[in-house]
Design brief:
Helix content is 38%, strand content 16%. By secondary structure, the protein is an alpha/beta fold. Helix 8 links the parallel strand 5 and strand 6.
């Protein structure tokens, strides 16, 4: 929840935990925020450090424990250093690239009398890319034949959204997104080609292969790259707050480093549309992809196909509604099939990709935007990893819809095992009675019987107060055939 607060506001969410097991339980959320570039401050307790009569009871080196999963971690050893350390922790959490920071407060230090000094926020101005670099970037784009715009996780900031929309409108260059770049530009835009939900062998990868220049805005190495660079292959312009980290598959020819919104806005004014630009193949790919995505949207078989669920939710939800995804195979279907109309209206995690994040993320989104429709979509496995938070949602009197995709198994790993030719092993389990489970927390529970029953239940839940848990049987039988087999066969022909 604290990490999602950081993601949605740009300011650090703050969470507290006790020492020992309380601190260790924060490791996964810290990694979630750190990899996802969400500003967050973790504060944990500790036994007295000057003297202690409890030996090593519950004592772990929490500072070292947090070091790999935070930008900054420190034990407070003097009460008078609290104010500057808190100020510095907030600064580091917000500064690009945002992430998690941690302070440990021992009991005896917490009891000290100390100065009441407060360090005010001074703010900062992000540096701008140099004029000669922007000129070189515009010249490279104008010289290309099939330039293509990629929008990544680092572009998911409000000012960048506005600048990128203006850039696309001004230049007419088609664009696609990573999973965490969805919605930065309205995906109803005619130049939108799709989202790189899969690593390879999707329609979109055919367009990427034909491009001779990729303008990569907001690239973040935590996401699987939607393309691999090759020596002598397509050129890449890296537009970001920080220079590119070079490796064997990503070595851009030009870094445009500085405030992304400024860089994109300047490029939009510098670039002149060119007669030799040829986007005809990109248009073919868009048409093929739209036909593919529409195929199962109206298929009413039951249990329900994930493609059908995506279609029904987009059809029923408001333009600004927020869908919070946990982690599972359905995340791929949402990333590919669900068009987002604005940034952060699909809260998915393609960085740590931790199960259990969907419900608490939805809860925070609803707390921040109480008038906005918020739906959490969770696999049954992911839901059970944080299902106790139904009590929190009920206690906070949130109006929230939680859809559990029930297949009594770990569907993502089943899909991967099948693709690798392995037998299904260790992935099936028995779920509880989700309706009774929800009701035991004071929430409302529903067990779906058929397609029309889901549509009616969804409509009712979206217009009713309280926490609503929908147990929806899901049919994953087409995952392998479509995502692993048919896509490769179809896209190879293009």
């Amino acid at each position: 929840m604290a990490a999602t607060y950081g993601r949605l506001t740009g300011q650090p969410g703050v969470c507290f935990a006790t020492l020992g097991p309380g601190a260790t339980n924060l490791v996964t959320p810290a990694a979630f925020a750190q990899l996802g570039a969400m500003p967050m401050l973790l504060i944990t307790g500790q036994k007295p450090i000057k003297t202690s009569k409890q030996g090593r009871f519950q004592i772990l080196d929490v500072v070292d424990l947090m070091r790999p999963v935070t930008k900054f971690t420190k034990q407070i050893v003097n009460g008078n250093t609290i104010a500057p350390l808190v100020r510095e922790a907030f600064r580091l959490a917000i500064e690009e690239r945002p992430g998690a920071v941690h302070l440990e407060l021992p009991e005896d230090i917490a009891a000290e009398q100390c100065d009441n000094t407060i360090y005010p926020v001074s703010g900062h101005q992000r540096p701008h890319a140099a004029t000669e670099v922007l000129d070189k970037a515009s010249a490279m784009i104008e010289a290309a034949t099939r330039p293509l715009l990629l929008i990544g996780a680092g572009a998911n900031r409000k000012s960048v959204c506005e600048a990128l929309t203006a850039f696309v409108d001004a230049t007419g260059i088609p664009f696609f997104t990573t999973q965490m770049g969805k919605g930065v530009v309205d995906e109803r835009h005619p130049l939108y080609l799709g989202s790189a939900a899969l690593s390879d062998h999707d329609f979109l990868h055919c367009a990427i292969a034909k491009a001779d220049l990729i303008i990569n805005v907001g690239h973040d190495v935590v996401e699987k790259p939607p393309f691999f660079m090759e020596h002598g292959g397509k050129q890449v312009i890296h537009v970001n707050f920080l220079p590119a980290a070079v490796d064997a598959v990503y070595f851009p020819q030009l870094n445009v480093v500085g405030d992304i919104a400024f860089s994109v806005a300047q490029l939009a004014t510098l670039i002149q549309t060119q007669q030799h630009w040829d986007f005809s193949y990109f248009n073919t790919i868009k048409t093929e992809l739209q036909q593919h995505l529409a195929k199962y949207a109206v298929d009413t078989r039951f249990p329900m196909l994930p493609q059908r669920l995506v279609h029904l939710l987009r059809q029923r939800l408001d333009d600004n509604a927020i869908v919070s995804l946990d982690n599972g195979i359905y995340k791929l279907w949402f990333a590919r099939n669900y068009p987002c109309y604005s940034a952060n209206t699909m809260l998915l995690d393609n960085a740590l990709a931790s199960m259990g994040a969907g419900l608490p993320s939805a809860m925070m989104a609803k707390m921040l935007q109480p008038e906005t429709q918020v739906v959490a979509v969770c696999g049954d496995g992911g839901f059970m990893m944080n299902s106790q938070e139904l009590e929190t949602a009920v206690r906070l009197k949130l109006n929230l819809v939680v859809i559990i995709l029930n297949d009594n198994g770990y569907g993502m790993i089943k899909w991967k095992q099948q693709d690798m030719g392995f037998a299904n092993f260790g992935l099936d389990y028995a779920n509880p009675d989700f309706v009774g489970y929800a009701q035991s927390f004071g929430a409302h529970g529903y067990r779906i019987q058929h397609d029309e029953h889901f549509r009616q239940t969804l409509n009712s839940c979206l217009t009713s107060a309280g926490v609503h848990v929908i147990d929806l049987p899901v049919d994953y039988s087409l995952n392998h055939d479509i995502l692993n087999v048919l896509l490769k066969e179809k896209t190879c022909q293009l």
